[in-house]
């Protein structure tokens, strides 16, 4: 098997097919996923008509941690993401594994939740089918596209991202029309739930809104497949987050102004309420857009999960079988099959609300480790230029993560703990194989830059 030279001099078995625009759309598509389509009502329950405020706070929190990722990805451009950074920073295999597996568990848990969202009310507009079996079939189709290749997957992402952005822009335009004809009420934008203060409403809403912004971190796991990663990654990352933030804030402004917050809270498809209030458009059209958004989020999440499992196996943190690559396509086939199987189990056993909350908890643990790793690794100098975040940013980001972790519920800590405990079994297997000297499932990459297959 041939290898491609990496931009940091490290060869890679993965194909470098991701350009700057594709990376921007990858991140934008992953951030602009199902969260805002499904969780506007939940945010309104916490923050009333002021749901735009927790969206703004969540954006700022996401940008703090994004600065840490920009530094580490451009400093160490390789698959594995946060697990690799933890290994370099702390030098403790078990801790590195737990960080990486938290990310992996968050990915498959998120995909499970998105599959349930896909099989729910939006699909119910067209078909009356059982949710769990439909969600499992959906995950199998996502896995097939993932295995076909990163370039094919990201081309599909381009189309789906354009559709989901159009859907959110449509909500903004229709909400503005409702206000323009006098049917809305802009004064709702300052209304809070009864008995709730601004601070409590902002914090409670931000905990939910943060789920709508996560996804940017997945891009660290395709670093080996990005061309000229040190130059294009920071631009794509911050550009995508800023774009998503503007769209989310506009939705957060028009939705409660066009539709009473209580009506948003009581709907399983809150943005459909805005479309219905505006009139003149079949609800089926927007349901299709929402389904595309959910499908795109699931695809990108499973791309991340499989690449992370591959990268962890390459670092010896997971059994080496997970580093096996599909001949010809050069995609991590074993990692794709394994992560899809776990997502299917979670789909059959979990609820959308609990899965989404557990995703946030697991990612906060990952973000905390990554923000601290930035500071620790400042003493490690590499032989190429890279992005450098202001020191205050990772410090503030770590403090933010700690604050949000204190607000998580006990049942979500329990679910996250169960997932991590299961992961430790895989870690023990990897260590046992290493002690027995089990040979790698892949040939060692050549050190010279061989031509890409």
UniProtKB/TrEMBL annotation:
Superkingdom in the source lineage: Bacteria
Pfam families: AA_permease_2 (PF13520)
Transmembrane segments: 21-40, 52-73, 94-119, 125-145, 157-178, 198-216, 237-259, 279-303, 333-353, 359-377, 389-406, 412-430
Alphabetized UniProt keyword annotations: Cell membrane, Membrane, Transmembrane, Transmembrane helix
Record's bilayer topology term: Multi-pass membrane protein
Intracellular or extracellular location(s): Cell membrane
Gene3D superfamilies: Amino acid/polyamine transporter I
A GO cellular component annotation in the UniProt record: plasma membrane
Gene Ontology molecular functions: transmembrane transporter activity
Name the record gives this protein: Amino acid permease
Organism lineage: Bacteria, Bacillati, Actinomycetota, Actinomycetes, Micrococcales
